[in-house]
Amino acid sequence: MHKLNRDFFLYLSKNKLLNKNAKRWGLKLGASKVVAGLTIEDSLQPLQELNESGRMITLDHLGEFVYEEEEAIEAFQSSMEALDFIKENDIDCYLSVKLTKLGLDVDEGLCMKHIRALLERAKQYDTMINIDMEDYAHYDQTLDLLDELRKDYDNIGIVLQAYIHSGVEDTNRLKGMKIRFVKGAYKEDASVAIQDKKKIDEHMLEMIKTHMLNESYTAIATHDHELIEKVKTFALENGIPREMFEFQMLYGFRNDVQLQLVKDGYRFRTYVPYGKDWYGYFMRRLAERPQNVAFAFRGMLSK
To answer: Which reaction is this enzyme known to catalyze (predicted)?
Structure first.
């Protein structure tokens, strides 16, 4: 049943017509519980409250299906405005971006121009840009572009997905970088991605351990309490200082656990999405865990 739910919502996440219509709906279907606002101004209060509770933030301006140059330029300008907004409001936060949103499927040169400009602005503000990994169709291209960017910038991070077979190899390839480890939220073929949940969990822990032992900053993005406990134990047993890693969770999920990790003295960052293009993100959250479907229906009923 879980697999049926997952495949169904992943299928819906790629429906361009529904994505287009969702922009007219506003934050319905319970999305307002997991998306901070339609605009960055809407998001200010939630961002400030997170910082006040001891949580750092990574901010994501949502968007997908960018195939026109005009859309890519608009997305780039929104990201630049977000960097200015973060600085002006003194928010402890960095920006997460998707290369496809910056024009990767339009023109690679345009995308590189955009991401370089963002990295320059972030450098001025003494912050970083984190590149979100997308579906496998963009995987190798993203890593190749990252190799180019690393020659000129050190204020850049990347996301690696634990279900990708080459995960440990890619972790070693990116030694010294800030890496955010996630399980993975796209539907991928067995030839490139692990399909069994238990094996994905094991692979993620192996990737995290590899990066920690490589003395590289590690972000563990998971709601899985068992994985969190294993990472804590590994760090303690191997003398990994707490300033070399952080835990991350999504905005709107497991708030009690987030606060407890802060209370226990761990570095913690909440992944906060905002924007009118919330639909694909929300569908993937429903796909990840069956409990999230009930969560969405509660959101609808409370409207």
So the answer is: L-proline + a quinone = (S)-1-pyrroline-5-carboxylate + a quinol + H(+)
